[in-house]
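Title: Prediction job returns without error message
Component: structure pipeline
Severity: low
Priority: P3
Assignee: unassigned

Description:
Job completed but the reporter wants confirmation the result is attached to the right record. Sequence as submitted:
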Amino acid sequence: MIDKQDLESLYGCKPREEDNYLTNFGVEAYLQLSQTASLYKGLNVEILGWEAFEKGFGKKPIKDLLKGKGPLMNQDAVVVPCNPGNSKQWFLLVVLPKEKELLVLDSKAGSFAKPTTVNAISKMWKLLQQLDSSLNVNHWCFTTNTSMDIPQQGNNIDCGVFLCMFARCFLLQSPVPCSKRIISVRRHMIVELHGQELQSFTEPSIQEGAYYAVEYQKTYYFGRALGCPDGSFINFKFRHSTSSSGAKVFDWPRRDDNDRVHSPSVFYGLAVILGVGPFTFPQLSEVEQVYQWLRKSRKRS
């Protein structure tokens, strides 16, 4: 159960950063919705709660920590919301027993494996060894992402939201909905918690004259929407990329830089364009992350 305070922290827009952090109750309630949705895809998923993992392991018998849980080694996936000590940073720990893989998804990753993620992996490995002493570390893969692998948060308060989205999209094999503003994702999560089921993220209709990032011929381009005559295909005029002082910029379209693309090819927007030629897109880094995430998600499915 979650209370008014949990929902208020999810709603966001509080002046103090700490008041916008998702609580462990809110995070675990959302993970339970993802667990239920994964059942319809034929997956057996178990959740090990924050309090049991961060505070209970090593202090309570393992059978008490896992009371009411299914056998972890028989699951398709085990998800654990992690927020160790006073780190104030949520990240997701995922165990894939059948693939013999243990990985961390962190929305504020460093250029190296952070001590908090290494400690979480080590703790989970010790827990698994208590369940099955025959496990061989040499047969398992241990992974943590870098900042270039998956979308990253742009502030200090949205780690819990990203954790929930990572769990949802990893289990259901769908892309992270980063084309929406994060505040919209927070509102959407409240609706889902109220209805006690996950709901599709509906993308806004394409606005004529606005700019979007479009997947096109094994790469992506920024294009201005010229129109959407039948709702399935959109006409775009694309900017072509170039470089200026080592930075990636975009110039005026050539005469033939327009084409008709299928609407699912649009993966980011609205995009803001600056300058008078060459132009820049302030969201370029985020668009790169979303595009790489989409490619990796497609390979997994």
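Comment from assignee: result matches the submitted record. The mean pLDDT is 87.
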